[in-house]
Amino acid sequence: MNKKLRLAFFLVCSSFLLPVTALAQCKDQLCQNLQNILFAAVIDFREYRTKSASAPELSIEGAKVPCQMSVWANNVPMYICYSQVPSPSAEVWYTSALADLRILQPTWQFKINSPVSDHFVDAGLPDCEIPATGGPNLGHCPLHLQITRQTDGMAKIYLWMSSLSSPYLVKRLPESAKKTVAAPVGGGCDELCQGLKKAFEARVNSFKDLHAAKTTGGVSEPTIKLVGAGECSVNSTLKSRSNDAGTQYVCYWSETSNSAADAIFRDLISRFQILAPSNWPTREEDQSEELTGVKVKAWCAAEPTGKQAVCIYISGESVGLHINSWN
Question: Which of 30, 197, 186 is nearest to 114 (CA)?
């Protein structure tokens, strides 16, 4: 790379980088880890997307907050952190993280919405907009921070940061900008988000709340059908390679192209990476689809004891979602 190109590259990247003064102002590990994440976003999270790289967590005393790489439906990489902690610890974490982010990115605009005791923050360059559920484009806010309190005294913590230099970041169309909606989980949970939450929560009682009165051959049309899905059902199932019986909520999407199916596949993954508890291990692999035996790509998250799981499958133009509860 010649000197002129190197200079041009440096000038482009420096517009995203943190101010030099911020380096001396990080006095704790949370701030330092946030700083590392923001720097990594400038170079498309390359080091965190390799298996050898260790993604920094955002934990403080009393609040362990693990993080991992993910990807939006439009293939833009995102760094996502999630945990459930006691409400007082969540408030300390939120206040500390927001204060550190203001120091690290003083030129950013922080849009804060705090209804009752919850907090939702979207941040980025001035006048940035909240990305649609499919993922961010140029001009959208790259960072989202929130805590939502529960009735049991716990609170859910979320932070996600989108890549600042992904080749999949494109200039958004004026019409699409008018139709932007809130991110998968936040102050404006859309219709698909609401359906997924209800279906996922119903696993704790083996989807009894979703059973319709009409049942044929052990298959029931559920009271909740996910937006865009061609078919949803609740039925009995057997765990592969064992005799364990259970119940599952299943939905299928049939698209007109592989790219459209992949967009749904990635969108569902990004949503369940937030919905699934932080202690559920996740994996993505090639395997055989449970019902048909067809070779598919699968993303799964499973409860540590193996009693509950969610798997998302894609094969060509078809996408399947299975939420399982085993007896």
Answer: 186
pLDDT tens per residue, range 211-249: 655 555 455 667 788 888 888 888 887 766 556 778 889
Q: CA 70, CA 52: separation in Å to the nearest integer?
A: 16
Q: Using CA atoms, how far apart are residues 178 and 305, in angstroms rounded to an integer? A: 45
| Side-chain half-sphere exposure of 278, counting CA atoms within 13 A | 19
Residues 122-180 pLDDT 10s: 999 998 988 876 788 888 999 999 988 888 888 888 899 999 999 888 876 554 333 33
As a whole number of angstroms, the distance between CA 214 and CA 97 comes to: 50
22 within 8 A of 103, measured Cβ to Cβ: yes
CA–CA distance, 184 with 197 (Å, rounded to integer) = 11
For the chain, list the strands marked E by DSSP: 67-71, 77-86, 109-113, 119-124, 143-149, 154-162, 215-216, 219-220, 231-238, 245-254, 282-288, 295-302, 308-315, 318-326
Token pair recorded at residue 316: 């060509």
Q: Which residue has the tokens 């949970």?
A: 189
Q: Is the dihedral of CA 182, 185, 186, 191 positive or negative?
A: positive
- Cα–Cα–Cα angle for 109, 114, 117, rounded to 5 degrees: 145
List, in order of start, the domains of the chain with CATH numbers: 17-188 (no CATH), 192-326 (3.30.310)
